Amino acid sequence: MSLTGTRPKTSAPHQPANVQARVEARLAGLGSVVVALSGGVDSSLVAALAARSLGDRALAVTAVSPALATGELDGARSVAEAVGIAHETIATHELGRAGYRANEPDRCYHCKSELYESLARLATARGFASLASGANADDLGDWRPGLRAAAEHSVVHPLLEAGAGKPEVRELAGLLGVPSAGKPASPCLASRIPYGTVVDPGALARIDRAERAVRALGFDQLRVRHLGELGRVELPAGDLGRALRSSERVAIERAVCAAGYSRAVISREPFRSGSLNLVSGGRGPREPGGRVAPSRPANGR
Question: Is the pTM of this model over 0.85?
Answer without folding.
Answer: yes
